[in-house]
Structure formats: C-alpha cells, structure tokens
Amino acid sequence: MGDIIFVHGLGGTAMRTWSWKRDTTNFWPAWLTEEKTLSRFRIFSFGYNSNFKGAATNLNTIDFAKELLFSMLTHSGSVGEKHGGNTAVGARPIIFVAHSMGGLVVKKACVLGQHDKQYSSLVSQIYGILFLGTPHRGAQYAKMLNILSSALTGSAPKDYVADLDIHSTSLQDINEQFRTTCDGFELASFFETQKTSFGITKLLIVEKESAVLGYPQETSIPLNADHHNLCKFESRGDPNYTSVKNLIKHWASKISLPQQGCISRQMTGTNEINVLREALGIRETADMDLDIIQNNILGGSGEWITQRQDFIAWHQRLFENNPAVFWLIGLPATGKTAIATTVINHLQLLGHDTVFHLFTCGHQQKKTASYCLRSIALQIAKLDEEFLQHISHLIEESGSDFGLPTNNFDSLWEKVFCGLILKMNRQAPLFFVLDGLDEADLQTSLLGRLLKIQSRFPIRIFLTSRPMKVPLAPPGISILPHLLMEKDTADDINAYVQRMVQVALPDDSQIQEEVIQEVLNKASGSFLWVKLTLETLQDSWHTKEDIRAALSEVPKGMELLYGRMLEKIKAQSQRTVLIARRILTLTICCWRPLTLIELQKALEPEFQGFVRLEHTIAQICGHFISVDNSKIFLVHGTARNFLLSSNQTDPPFVDRCEGHELLATACFRTLSNDQWRLSLKSISPANTKHESVLRDGGLSHIEKAHPLLRYAACHWAYHLSRSSSSSEPLIGDLKSFLGKNSLSWIEAIATLGTLSYIVRAARYLKAYAKQRSQGSGVHNSGIILSLRELPKDETKILQSWANDFIRLVGKFGKSLVQHPSSIRRLIIPFCPKESAIATAQCHMGPNSLTVTGLPLEGWGDCLARVTMGDSQMVSKVLATDRLFFTLASSSGTIIAWSTDTCEEIRRLEHHEYVLMMVVNISETRLATAGFSGYRIWDIFSGAQEHYLPKWTEALTITIMFGQSDSQLLIGLDDCTVTTYELQDFTIRSRFTIQEKIREALSCPHTISISPNRENVAVAWRGKPLMVWDMTQDALPQSCQVNGNSDSLMAPEQVLWQNNGNSILILCLDSKLFEWNLYDEEQFEYGKYHDMNAREMALSSDGTLLLTSDNFGTMSVWSFPRLQLIYRLINSNEYIRALTFSPSAQRFYGTRDSTCNVWEPDALVHPETTDLADSSSIAESYAATEPVVSKDESSENQVTALATSSDDRWFCCGKEDGSVIIHDAQTSTKIRKVCNYTAASAVILLEWSKSGRYIVSSDESGRVISKRLEVKEPGKWTIYPGLDARFSEPVLQFVFSADEKLLLMSLGTFDCVWDLKSKNQICQQYRAKTTKGKWVADPINAEILLWIDENTIYQYEWLTLMCNEADHSHVQIPCSMDCMSTVRKVALTSNSQTLVYELAPNKGIGSKSLRVLSISSLSHSWEVDLLHRVKSLIGVIQNRIVFLDDNNWVCTWEIEAGNADVRHQFCLPSDLLNASTLELMRLSDFGSFFCPRLGNVVVVRHGLRL
C-alpha cells in the first residue's frame, strides 16, 4: 500500500535512534506493522554518518540528502528494475518520519529531487512528512555543540552541525526552497516540551518556534519528552507513541481510501484547489485553526464522548439520508472546543469524510455563517473530486467570486450547498462538526438550513454551543442533545492537572498531590479556569510555602479569577501596565489575530525595541493572551467580555473605541511609509512581465521589511469606522492618507488580487462619514464626548471618496488586477474631473493621457444600455452573476448579455411566443415557457437540454425549478401546480386546488410558489389572495379584507420573501401590503410612502425592494422599514420589467426595445456591521438621506460617429435624427449638419478625408450628404448635397480618392453616386447576401476592393463590374469554423497594408484579425496574438490598434512576434457595449473616440508607440 521511511538525526543510527534506551529490541517502527491500517506498509530506516564525535568530514546536509535519494532509487537493485520480487521505492505513496536533523535531510531531498529527472518520480509519491524535533529555524546550541566536540575530540567542526545554527544560510535556503516544493504534502511537526540533560544543566534543544514550520497544511503537536526521547517510546502504551502512531495511521487510511471505495485526497489537483481557495476567499484553512486547538489540549482529552451510547448510535446511522444531529451544550470554558477537536480526529481516524468549522469571536470573518459555508466547501472539494470539478466549473463558467462580501449566506447556501453539495452522487456519509454555534452571526438561519437538509447521501452533524434554545426537529430529523456536566470532563481535567503539575513539580509527590487536589476542588468543570489557575500559580512556585499560600488565595469561578489576573497586571509599574493595556487592547480590537511581528509594529513608535515580545507578553499580560504559531490570541471569548466591561468603581480596562483608533493610526502610519511605496513602484512598472512576477508573490517580499502592510491595506477602514468620530488627529490622518497615499493603497490591494477589500473599505468609509455627519461626537459606547458643528462639505468629501473606490472596482476591476500600476497614469484620467480621487491627483504631466467627454461631477449611474433590435419589445429581464437575459415575448428570442461588458453573448430561440423565463438556484440553467411547451437551456453553452411539451390548453401562469435542477414546477390557470422530472418527463407530484373553490373562482391570474417549493399563493381578480400548503390536504389561508372595495381584492403582483414566512402584495391601486403568514398580520406600506408602484422586484436576500411607477421613475427601498434609498426620475418611458442583480448592487429596467443597466453608488450600503448579517443592511441605511438622480439614459444616444482627418472635430448622429459637429478638444457643439425625423435614428456617418463632405443615413434608408466649408476658425458653412431614399438602410459609405464619387452598400445591392451632379452612376444587385466590406484601392484610384471572409474582388468604380479574366479575385484561406463577417477594415498610413476583422455570423465567438498586402493581394495572413481580440479599432503608422477581451486598447506591430502586444490604456466597463464597439474610431494622430450615452469620449496621448 505504501512505504514508511525513517530518517535519524545528528549522532543517530538507523536502528538505535528509534529504540528505547538505544536497545534495538525496543525498535518501535516494527510495532507499526501490528496495526491493521499499517499492515500493508513497508518500513524502512535510512542510516548515514552523522556522528559528531568522530573524525572530521566535509559532508553536509546536501550530501546526506543526495545519499537518501540514491538509496531510495537503487533499493530495487538497479535503476528502473525490480530485485528479488520487491517493488521499487517510489512506486507507491511514501511517508517520511524524521528526527531532528533528519528532517532537514528529507526537506533538502525533496528540493533536490523535484528538479532532477531521475528522482522527480520519487518526490511525486511523497504523501507526508512527520517531523520529530526538527530545527527548521536552527538550534541555538548547535554552535556550542561544534565547539565542545572539537575541544573534546580534537576534530574539526562538522559542516552538517554548522548547518543547524540559527544563522545558517544553508538552513534559510532549505526553508525557502521547501516552501515551494511541499504543496500537496501532508506535514506534521512534533515538538519537545521537556529539557534535555547536559551534565549539570538542562536545555531545551529545539524550541517550539523552530520546530514548527507554520505552513497552512501543517499539524503541530507537543510531546511530553526531551529532544533525545522524542523519537523513542518505552512501550506500546506510551502516550507519545500513541500520538505519533495515530497520525501515521490517519495518513495511511487516507492513502488506502481509493481501494476502499472512498474518495482520495490525492485525486484532487493542487492547482484546482488553490484556484478554488482564492475564489472562496479562504486565506487560512480550517486545519490551521484545528492545529492551534490541538497544540493546547492534552492528548486523549474528550475521548469519553466517543464511548457514549448516544454518540455511538448517532455515528453508526451511516445509511440513513435524513441528517442526524448530536448537539453538545455546555457552559463557557468547559472544554467544548477540545471535545469537538476530539470528535473530528476520531471520525477522521475511522476513515470518514469529515468537515468542520470553529466559530470564534476573535476573527471578524470566521464568526460569520457565510465564511463557515465557504470553508466547508473548500474542505469538501479536497475530499470529493466530483464536487471539486462541479464547483470549479461553476466558478469558471459563471464568474462567481464567492469570497466577495456581496455573496451572502443565503446565496452561498442556495448555489453551493443546495445546488452542488447536496446533489453529489456518493454513498459514504459526510460528517459536519461545527463548534461554537452560539458565536455565529446567523446561528438561527444556519441551524434552520442544516435541519432542513435533503441530500442524496447520509449526513451527520455534530454541534457544540453554550446553552441556547434547541428547536423542534422537522419530521424525519433526529436531534440528540447532551448537556455537558462536570462528571463528563472530570477525568480529562484530572489528567490535565496531574500532567501539568508533574511537569512543573517533578520532584515532590506530596506537594504535587496538594496542588492537584486543591485545583480540582475549585475547578467546577472549567478547563479554562484550571489552565489559567495553573499558569498564574507557576508565577509563585519558588518554595512550598509560596505554593501553599498561592493555593489558598486562588478564587473560585472565572469572573473572580479574571479579576485576580487583572489586579496583577495593575500592580506592575505604570509603564509596564501601559504596555500590557496596549497589547490587550490591540489583541481584542484586531480584525483577525495579529502575528507577533505585526503586533510589534502596531505598538511602535510608542513602544519599540522589544528584546523578545513573546516573553514580554507572557510576563506582563496576566495570562490573558496566548501565543500559538507566532499569532496572538485571547485565551477565551469570556476574557474579551470581562476586559471590555466596567463595574461600579472602574471603567473598562480596555477601551474598544481607543483600540480601534490605535489600530487605524498604525495602519495609516504604515500605508504612509514612503519606503514600501518606493519598493512597489520599483518592481511594478507598466511592464507585464514584472507585474506578473509581483502578482505571483503578492506583497510577500515587501512585507518582509513592512510586516504590518498587508493588515493595514486590508483593514484600515474597518478600524476607522469603529473609532471615535470626534477624533481630530484621526480625521487628519485619514485626509492625508486619501490625498497622498490612496493610489498606492489601491495598487497594493490590486497586487494582492482581492479588490473586494476596496469595496469593503468604501462601505466602512461611508459608515464613518455618516457618524461624522451626525456631529454629536458620541463615543461608540454611547458616551457623549462633545457637541460640535462639522463642516458641511466634509461628509460630502468622504462619501465622494467612498463612491470613487466603488466605481474604480466596478469599472476597472479586471484592469487593476492585471496591471496594478495602471491606477496612476491610465485610470485616473477616466475619473470625473471633480471627483475626489481626480481632484487629489491633478498633477499629471503635459503629455499624459487626457480624456474629455465624461461627466464632470459624477460617475453616472447608468452602466449600459442594450437593445434587442428590430423594434422588438423587451418584456422580461432576469440576471445572474455573470449573465443577464432579455426576452422578446412576441418572437420568442432570448438574448444573453455579459454582466461584465454588457455585450451580447448569444441568442436563444424558443420559436414561439414566450410567456416567461426563470433560472435555477445555481444559475446554470434557464427555463422558458411558450404556449406549446417548455425548453430548458444550459446557460453557458446555450444548448437546449430538454423540451417538455404542454399537453393541456390551460395557460401557464408560473414556472420554477425544483430544489433539484432535474425538476420543473409548472403552475397553470386550471389551478394546478405540477412537478415534472425533466429526465423522463414523468410527473413527480401534482397539487390541485379543491374543486369547489376552483369552480367558484374560475381561472386565477397570479400564481406564486414559495422559495421552499411547499406553499403556493393564488390570486383572482375581485377575490382575496389565498395560500395553500401543497404538502398536505388542508384548507387555505385567506388574506383578510374589508369588503369588496378593499385594495386587497385586486392583487396584481405577488412576491414571496426569501424566508417564505411572508408575502408582498402589490394591488391594482398601487398600494403595497405585507402579509405575515405565521402571525396572520397584514401591514400596508403604500399608506405611508409615496410609492405609486406598478411593477416591483425583491432582492435575493429580501432586504431591498425595487419599484417603478406609471411614468418610468424607479425607486429602491430598504426592507422591511421601506425607507427610500434611491430614486431615478423619468417622466416619459414606462418600465415593462425590472430585476435586481444577485448582489443587489445593480438593477435592470426595460423600456420598449431596450434594457438599461443601473449601478448607483447608493446601493453600496454603509457598513455598520462586521460584514456578517445581511438582515442588518436595512439598519445601515437608517437616517441616510435618499439619493435622487435623473435618468441619463433618457438622453438622446449617439448612434453614429465620424471624425475629421485633422483631429480637431468629430461629428455624431443621434437617435433623435440630429447630425452635429463638435469640437474634439472640448466636446462642445459647433454646427448642426442636418436633421432627420425624430422617429428615425441616424445609423451611419462618413466624413471625407479632405473634410469637404459629410454623408449620413438613418434607419429608414434616407441618405443626406452635405458639403462643408470653413470661412474662419469655428465658422462652418453647410451646402446641400444629395438627398435620396432607399427601401432598406445603408450599411457602408466609401468615398473615391478624388471625392467625386460615393459608394453606398445596402443589404441586397450596391450603387455609386456622383456627389456633384447628385445622380446615380451605376448599381449592381448581389446574387446572394454576403458579409463583407468595400475599400477604395489606395494604389489604383479606379478600383474598388470587396473583401469577404475568404475572397478579395476588384471592381471598377464607374461600372461596379468585376472582371475575373484579369485575375481580379483572390481566394484567401480562413481558419474560422463557421461563416464569418468582415466587420471593420483599416489601412496603414503608407497605404501598403490592409487590416480587417472577421467575426462569426452566429453567436459570439472569438474574432480574428487578417493582414493583407495591397501590392500583392495573394499575400494575406491571419494575426496570431496571445490576446483575444474583442474589436479592431484601427491602424496607426505600422501598428494595429485593437481592443482585447479585458478592455485594454492594445497595439501590435505588423509582422512582429505575437508577444509584441503592448497594453496602452484600459477602458471603463460602462463605456463598452455592442453598439459602442462598432462606433469606436481612431484618428491618424492616435486620438481615440467612443460614444457614451449622449456624449463622445475622446482619449488623447494614450498610444505610446
């Protein structure tokens, strides 16, 4: 099954190192084969010459590592062959067990083997490494050992001993290299807790800090032994042997899992896991939290619970799919977490797939239910390859970033748990262990969801909590509560006390017994009390009298003990007390546990120069703080409450508000440091290669010199929002930071790749601005500090900064992550000139990139405007994370649009009138309902998966996916709700309204199914709303009304709240009611609010309500208070449909044939909570003034664009039929050229190269040309030209070289007109509709070139005749699989080369660029770039200018290598959609023109050639 290889340390041998008292009859590795789990593993012990007493050698750690690798490779006799029937080492998984220096040898062997072809296969088989006292960071006595050895033996110092020194460069190199090698390894580090005898003294050879690597996948465990006996065990019953053996068995069981039908951890790919970990926002794995707990508990603690009959019964119900819950309830500090840890280890050792989460109030994210779900999802992905593939596919296809704050608990539960985890096809049970449920932010919601789990496989849940109400279990669910009693943990506490006392007082059994009995008599079942009591007693253990006196003074109970500990702190010197207070304050107020070095930096400059901060903490902080793996933790949540509480005589020892201000100040101080900003600038130029290197390492190399940088960058705003709003020094620091250092901060966050921190900072900044605006100076604890008047513009400035941060992420998110340094030169110019961030960064150079045509004051709330085309009315809209869909019911056409770019992705054709559409829970499928049937589509591929015919004449009123994607619920106007299995179209269930009611009320006009698919609300006109429980035969609940004139007699729209407990009812008279089904209460909202609602939509979390009135004004309200947050005023366009995005930070509204996408700043609420409870969102909007905006999408949009050749002017046509010339420098209007009817939009514009002619066409087929003259600067004279009408729109204009002729290309024919005589010269119909473009031949003025996907034709201008006999056409091979269209054509400045863009006809596929030599038309080739082309923009000099998939304007030199692509500047996402991509223009001077709503954006100095 596998190999276990033992490697000894300094001065050891292959056998004696592992034998008690060096007697090989006690060789314990041989005992392992007696274990069933390990019986099929081979045991090897590697020996090498590491004797420090012998003659000198020049060997070092590298030589020993090479010897180990060679021994493994040649074990089978000869390289690559078998010997004696033995399987070669490396053919099966390998577990290393290494003592002391042997661990360094193994690490070096891993590093060497990975980069050596002959050994790489060996290293790839390494499963795990178990270190026993390995000095990863060196041993402080190594140098002394070398000196003594040389003095006693007369031999020279040994190189391999020198390698163990704490200053050894060899050791540092091994650690750096091993960090990148060990991904995928299981790691465990056992460390000594007893000192080793050296004659008359005892020393701790390898301290814990050196023996523990601190890697995410590492388990660190203490052993009750010195360095010498750490690898030797007296008997099979030795507790140390049990600990080591159990871990090896645990690893072995995982290796064995595939042959047992279970799922192997090795099946998962490290890269996939890392990508998933980033997408889930998990920085510290659950195993790291578990290790910290295990390091602080005694081996064997809590094992009593595994012997309880109720626990055994819970555990052994392995094949019942209904979840069973074992709930351990206990008082604070009674060892619940230790018991949960024991249960986790017990289940894992039994081979069960076990996932867990330890809730803690010391980490703002880890106490949230959403983080719990994300952590569990990552653990399941490591266990189950099926789930890993499914969630990876979901993230890749949907673009979901589950680590964002907008992905709340409900969204995660529906998409990940209901959509994926609970649908896994597995037989083995899955165990959940959740510790500290009472500390979770959404404990009720989380518990409710867990108890309603319906899965395809068995699930067992183990919970721990403080006393709380145990809910009634739903049918089929069993809850086994157990109240933790003192007798349960008495043996564990007894063993712990005895162990600790015997270690501390090893030589006096009498005093041992006295201490043990006294402590146990007062313990009252509290592990924490025992631990802290023993720690405080050790401070006085000098004489027996001291011990007895200290025992007599030990208080009973946690509160009194805490008080005693605090008294000792206060009894120290004034400066020492202040240091202790600062340390405790920072520990309590930090976002997540600080490391020692972070804490040290946060204490500066007030306190600095600590010799060893960890020792200082142990000496002066009264045992309130523990240090594990170099991280600072408060001993318990109850200690936090104690230190923050006041009593009748004393204020709190820790001032929470002061602590947050201290941390905020430390963050600002760090972020304002010029050194790290210079380091970042020096290694992150606008060079793609350098920035990719920077991203790979994040900020890690900069953090070495600035250890608080990452924490400061991520959490400054959190601490700011929790600080006193009256602190003037703090507001000064904030203003300085925003004005001078905010761009560096944004660059640092972008380098980390987690832009969610910027959005989170904006939320906290809004909350702080809100506190400042109230002007009361109220302390967070409620104490009034002062009354003052604040400058009225201060709040506005802070809110402006917050909105700027939000907009930067929304518009430039991808670009920032790709090129963090672009924030300075390339992104700021796109910000509104009067925005806070642009105002602060106004010092741009003379040749810097400039942008005109953008709003001066605000960013604008309209993100994009998309159209169905062909005058199709948009009747429905719905949105997912990655796509949003618009439906034209009459044609049955559904268009999928990208939420990132608002580009059309694909079209789905239902081929009949479509009534409605809906997506499934996980947002992977779309269902559409027509008159004759239902179609199910794969959202990401566009493929139709199922078609379900409708067998009845009844009209479809509602459709909804079931809890499973394979089910579809259909509600018809015959009063039935039927659930269909889509795989075989069988009916799973059918609910029919009672016959008497159905006959009396006829056909309903509204049916709405509850989120849990168990209840249905049905509305008839002239009748009150009724609700049925579809799971049982019972009478319905009926909405209470007061007579026939009651508004509730005319319900128009019915929406269920996401909890399924209440219903929103919009009535015909625009009144809004909420009906609580459980309390039978009805509340009218419209009575107190100016709503006038005609349509409404509810956010996915139920906290926001979107309404529209008869005139098209849309309003967003917080729920349930129904406070107005945002209003978008429109007075002339009726809203047909509206919806929220899943995050509720964007909404969509349809008008006629268009759908507008809105993303107002106001929807990013001020963060007044710890990003925990979505239900508190409404609270965060309290006392916030609503934002009222004008609908800028109602302005006349630019629909056609042309530029003058001198770069001074541009001409735009709009949807109102106007054609106007503008100044390109200022965007001001100069002269109207012509005007079409208001009902016909201008769709095509062309400006001749000389500037004398402008020709335009509208969508009705009318063509107008004008001749222009400039009498004086800025004064234009317009002369009439031709005015012609055609039966179809014009698609292209081409001027002849002398500008006497004009080619017009239409859908079915082409024609040439004389501009002077205004007469048509010739016309040619095409035999078939082709998708090509015309170009005037730059060499021969009498020739026109026609270019389509694979052919180039030459035509005569005057006849439009093609003479094939003169070789006037050339065949060009095309690599595209489908028919394609030539979309854009551009010529180089020397007119020698032509570039054109090919795009597929059907759907949205990858576009390609082709280059054609004009002098030799047969010389054509396709551009093979490393970047996906979104659109060709033009050609400048000899470089192609194009837009890539990430909205970067790029250039590429023709005939250069594909790596020569240069990123010039990025465009904001709201600037681009299907229409603007077609209208982008590039002048001969390199200026870029692009429409935005009713304006034109002009970018100058953007192309650096």
TrEMBL record:
Principal subcellular localisation of the protein: endoplasmic reticulum
EC number of the protein: 3.1.-.-
Places the protein is found: Endoplasmic reticulum membrane
Domain (GPI inositol-deacylase PGAP1-like alpha/beta) ranges: 4-141
Enzyme class (EC, first level): hydrolase
Domain GPI inositol-deacylase winged helix: 572-647
Keywords associated with the record: Endoplasmic reticulum, Hydrolase, Membrane, Protein transport, Repeat, Transport
Pfam families assigned to the protein according to its UniProt record, in alphabetical order: NPHP3_N (PF24883), PGAP1 (PF07819), WD40 (PF00400), WHD_GPIID (PF22939)
Gene3D superfamilies per UniProt: alpha/beta hydrolase (3.40.50.1820), P-loop containing nucleotide triphosphate hydrolases (3.40.50.300), YVTN repeat-like/Quinoprotein amine dehydrogenase (2.130.10.10)
Domain Nephrocystin 3-like N-terminal, residue spans: 300-466
GO biological process, one term: protein transport
GO cellular component, one term: endoplasmic reticulum membrane
Protein origin, superkingdom: Eukaryota
One MF annotation (Gene Ontology) recorded for this entry: hydrolase activity, acting on ester bonds
Coiled coil: none
Function: Involved in inositol deacylation of GPI-anchored proteins which plays important roles in the quality control and ER-associated degradation of GPI-anchored proteins.
PANTHER family registered for this protein in UniProt: AMELOGENIN, GPI INOSITOL-DEACYLASE
Protein name: GPI inositol-deacylase
Species for this entry: Amylocarpus encephaloides
